[in-house]
Design the sequence.
């Protein structure tokens, strides 16, 4: 596991479908969707900068995105039945930039 990558949660509340689609596409290129409008992402400092720039470039008019740094020293607890709900060691998502 890359020790310089931190766990983040990104959530959004956007009313225009086209904007939601663009945000979801960008976020899914960095991490995994854990709920309809929530993504779990591992980011280095450089990745975080690229992601926030990409989100700002979307120039949203109908909502907002919140990016939270999560403390991942304690494993997440899943209650109930669901699919794969979090990024585990070895399941990191990375963006390849030119």
Sequence:
């Amino acid at each position: 596991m890359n020790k310089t990558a931190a766990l983040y949660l990104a959530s959004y509340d956007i009313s225009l479908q086209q904007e939601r689609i663009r945000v979801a596409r960008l976020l899914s290129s960095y991490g995994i969707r854990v709920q309809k409008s929530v993504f779990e992402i591992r980011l280095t400092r450089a990745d975080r900068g690229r992601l926030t720039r990409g989100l700002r470039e979307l120039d949203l008019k109908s909502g907002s995105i919140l990016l939270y740094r999560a403390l991942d020293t304690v494993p997440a607890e899943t209650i109930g039945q669901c699919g794969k709900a979090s990024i585990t060691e070895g399941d990191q998502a990375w963006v390849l930039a030119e």
